[in-house]
Amino acid sequence: MTTTGTLYIDKKSPIHSLDGSIKLLMLLVWTAIAFLFTDIRVFLSLILGGALLIRMANITFKEVKPLVVFLLIFTLFNSLFLIIITPAYGSELIDQYTPLFNILGRPLTYETLWFAITLSLKYLSILPITIIFIFTTHPSRFASSLNKIGISYKIAYAVNIALRYIPDVRDEFVNIMHAQEARGVAFRKGEDSLINRFKNYNTILIPLVLSSLNRVEVVSNAMNLRGFGSRKTRSWYNGKKYGEFDFLVIALLLVGAVAGVLINKFYLSGFWYPF
Amino acid sequence: MKKERTKNIIEFKNFTFQYRSLGTPTLKNIDLSIQSGEKVLIAGPSGSGKSTLGHCLNGLIPFSYAGMIDGKLKINNIEPYKTSIFDISSHISTILQDQDGQFVGLSVGEDVAFRDENSNVDVDIMKKNVMTALKNVDMENHILKSPQELSGGLKQRASLAGIVMSEAPILLFDEPLANLDPISGRSAMKLISSVHEKSNKTIVVIEHRIEDVLAEKFDKIIIIDNGIIAASGTPTELILDGSLRRFGLREPLYIETMRHANIDLKELDFLNINNLNTTNIKENINNWIENVTPKIRSYDEKILEVKNLTFSYNKRENIIKNINFDLYKGEIISLLGNNGAGKSTLSKVITGICKKSNGTVSYKGKNIDSWSIRKRGQEIGYVMQNPNHMITQETLLDEVSFGLKHRGYKKVEILEKAENTLKICGLHAFRNWPITALSYGQKKRLSIATILALDPSILILDEPTAGQDYKHYLKFMQFIESLSKTGLSIIFITHDMHLALEYSNRAIVLSNGEIIRDDTVSKVLSHTETLNRANLKKISVSTLAEVLNIDEKLMLETFINHDHREMV
User: Fold this and answer.
1) Mean pLDDT estimate for chain A
2) What is B8-247's CATH number, 3.40.50.300, 1.10.10.60, 3.30.420.40, 2.40.40.20?
3) What are the angstrom distances between the C-alpha of A88 and each of A75, A109, A213, A273, B370?
């Protein structure tokens, strides 16, 4: 994480130069398509395409490792629960039963196993585009591009200001925790029971909320005194106009979205089970 | 050619203001005028109403803080409370006290551009403006940095860049020195002066750190006390008639020194320290030095021993390096150093918040390296700079009991201990009050009470005097001194040289994570090389000694031994 508290990594690439609102649109279209299908071939091609985009954005694996690991663990548990709770779900979908072995007295079928894999890949197929959105979109530029697509600049700026204060609040949280710890409040393993330790985090909450409220007062004063909200529109220091590349990507996205819907409707609808 | 200063740019006429939530007015019948191009200091103790006066000027009153206004106020021919906060901002620009809070942008450039953005200035022009503004304050190389990467002084500079760009003829600085170390404070004041000279704008500074402010020329000082204008005049006039001292404001230390030495200030150009080299003054000071008897204290029971302590976050770069020092029972020491010297890190390593990379810490001869933060907290109390970070409960009694409860004391014991501690700290009368009703200074004392209740043998105080005016400073420090007489050892972490000079027995100077000096306060503060290396400011008592060609160490010793408490 950088000192600004956001995950944005400053690099030069076509993906970085793409307008934030378009990246948001891309994320939405991509996610919608992923959820339209239950077809492993689609997900594999999405993952492959996403990997290419990540490569284009010069993002290294090291930078995104924590996020990837988190999502892998999440999908793994997700599949496990699916298998344990509904071991025959995949079979019901396509009405085909090929039992593998018994799980908690009920048969797990090959079809369910395939379904679990498909579902995991569905989640993973959204990962590359999420990474691209988070790691290549400058928060201020994103705020300005939200404003550009018609969202009120006050709301757009709220996004910006929230990001601005994440590191401050994070530091404050740690500070308060240490102060309480030195007073004898237990936060660490072995010092008290899990429930009590969890309860103790409550003690941090009050000073944190109070100081955050105070912060809000100072910021809003500072913003008012410098003319925020005095006009109907505002310009953006980090703002940019849409370029040719942006329009090209919009066009591609439209084509992609329409193609996705059509393919889903006429060719690859439903759960695909090859065996 | 100088512009004629005849026009009143700010004019209060029989002005009264009362906050909606309060029962009595905070400002009462203010009559005050400031002329165009003047540089004015508004001073006063905390709670005097000086900040409220500032809020009336920049429009935060009544637009952010509602209340009742009576009488008249005119700024640059408008009546601010009848317009809007935005209109006012084109007549008067403000730099707020809280450097972190007022930094709105994610980067320096963005923050400087904020005003232009809101006025819908074209991006290309805006970028040019930002560059010009940053060049004005020598910060063009920091344009991409985020606020977290900047020191307090640089943040101050960036916010100055942001307002210098505005067209407003008046600049208002609300406690510009708060949280700045002396060197940054000095350069901030210089910067304000140079803006004044270049632009001929009217400058209003609200501040109680008189010594740092008066190093620059001011046309007028206005002292607010209890909501009224208690005194106003040129700095020379107010020092001569003793107004500053009467209203709980501290005069520059070298002037205090001259008063100790019974030097008649009349007829002297005393605001300019370099003009004070006369035989008369020298004679008086020498007399004074001879007549003050030294106090000698010695300590023999070692309580804390720090050996070869090293700490780094990433194993490559050591934040503190090879630290060695001892602390004795009942001793008060000051850990001096500029921002980033490693003072706070050192205290965090001692309290266990940061894990040392090398070296040992021993308490009463026992190695405590394996002790947790909690266990160390029992013996070594750590009081943070901001009392709001330490307060978690609703009433004072609850707050003090809270730590005891977590230490597993019995109910009866808790009540007894908590009440006792509150008595010692002079807060017993408020024990059932909500903490929110306390003043900043009282909260600070409460935060110490919460730690004292746990019976530590060592107290580490991080910037104990930050944000307190002189009256409260004195009261507070006398309280701390009385604690040390009971055998408590105290470590101040501070860049306040006055605090170090007057209340500690020993000073340890940190620079770049290393101890560069550990000696008596007078020796440390008279050692120019040490001060320069640590980027610390010489205090004006030494400067006076230098001007008079008197031994600096001797002069500082005399100053320390002189009973400074008589000054209130």
Assistant:
1) 87
2) 3.40.50.300
3) 19, 6, 52, 14, 54
Positions in chain B short of pLDDT 70: 1-6, 563-568
A19-40 pLDDT per residue, tens: 888 999 999 999 999 999 989 9
**Nearest alpha carbon to residue A219 among A152, A149, A168:** A168
CA distance B463 to chain A (A): 15
For an interface test with B, which of A141, A226, A232 has the most B Cβ atoms less than 10 Å from its Cβ? A226
CATH assignment of B302-541? Answer: 3.40.50.300
Q: Residue B2: its pLDDT value, please? A: 45
Q: Which of B148, B176, B138 is nearest to B42 (CA)?
A: B176
Residue B361 CA to its chain's centroid (Å):
31
Residue of B104, B155, B170, B175 to mutate, interface with A, max A Cβ within 10 Å? B104
Task: Find, in chain A, the residue whose alpha carbon is nearest to that of B453.
Answer: A183
Sheet holding B380-383, edge to edge: B380-383, B458-462, B489-494, B332-336, B506-511, B514-520
A31: CB partners within 8 A, 6+ apart = A126, A129
Element (DSSP H or E) covering residue B518:
strand B514-520
The confidence score (pLDDT) of residue B154 equals 86
Q: Contacts of residue B348 in chain A, CB cutoff 8 Å?
A: 178
Q: What is the band of A4 on the pLDDT scale with cuts at 50, 70, 90?
A: low
- Which of A1, A20, A15, A5 shows the shortest CA–CA distance to A172? A5
The residue type of A67 is: L
Residue-wise pLDDT tens digits, B310-343: 999 877 788 899 999 999 999 999 999 887 788 9
pLDDT at B376: 92
Model confidence, pTM = 0.84
Strands (E), B313-424: 318-328, 332-336, 358-363, 366-367, 380-383
* H-helix or E-strand spanning residue A169: helix A153-182
Q: Which residues of B touch A223 (CB under 8 A)?
A: 104, 114
